[in-house]
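Regression test case RT-17, inverse folding.

Input:
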């Protein structure tokens, strides 16, 4: 069976931009409120507990969460991004893989982070992706999502100085909350903030939790 176009395009785009992405965004550059959410997630999950960042890119957020005290690893579809992550953060584990086919054992994780990574998936895939998140999270485990808030498709032809073909979906926080709830991951908190700097749309952050203890 042929690989889906969206998957091929995501991998190719991020393989193309990996080195310049790391050069232009070498550390966590998120605004203070976003960093506070990452800290709150760390404290909610608890230090030393196993967490996975899906769509980790060059590992900059993964490493930040590791410094905050999480036992965290990263997975990304792009071998180019994973190579940069491994080179830049050799103390952490990074694997090539897809959030649509997570290999983590059932109920093995205390936390999952998808920091602006589900925005590249076709929206119709999200219910199945969230079901996969539910599978790998332990009862009581937490999920942190960051997305571009809205309801439109932004087709990118240029990124980080390179020509690419890449879809960026602006996603409705209300629709995401409903889909997460249907997957057994009820949302405990939602924050939507106005654009900062070069951002063109509000940003949304959702903290969900798998039911049970």
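Golden output:
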């Amino acid at each position: 069976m042929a690989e889906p176009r969206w998957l091929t395009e995501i991998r190719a785009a991020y393989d193309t931009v990996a080195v310049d992405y790391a050069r232009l965004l070498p550390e966590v550059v998120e605004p203070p409120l976003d960093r506070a959410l990452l800290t709150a997630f760390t404290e909610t999950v608890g230090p030393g507990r196993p967490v996975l960042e899906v769509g980790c890119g060059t590992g900059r957020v993964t490493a930040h969460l590791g410094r905050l005290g999480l036992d965290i690893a990263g997975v990304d579809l792009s071998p180019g991004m994973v190579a940069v992550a491994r080179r830049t953060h050799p103390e952490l584990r990074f694997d090539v893989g897809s959030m649509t086919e997570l290999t983590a054992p059932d109920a093995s994780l205390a936390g999952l982070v998808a920091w602006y990574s589900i925005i590249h998936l076709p929206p119709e895939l999200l219910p199945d992706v969230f079901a996969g998140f539910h599978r790998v999270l332990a009862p009581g485990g937490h999920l942190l999502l960051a997305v571009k808030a809205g309801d439109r498709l932004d087709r990118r032809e240029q990124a980080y100085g390179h020509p690419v073909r890449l879809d960026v979906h602006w996603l409705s926080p209300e629709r995401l909350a409903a889909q997460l709830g249907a997957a057994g991951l009820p949302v405990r908190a939602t924050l939507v903030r106005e654009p900062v700097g070069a951002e063109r749309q509000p940003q949304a952050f959702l903290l969900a939790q798998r039911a049970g203890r």
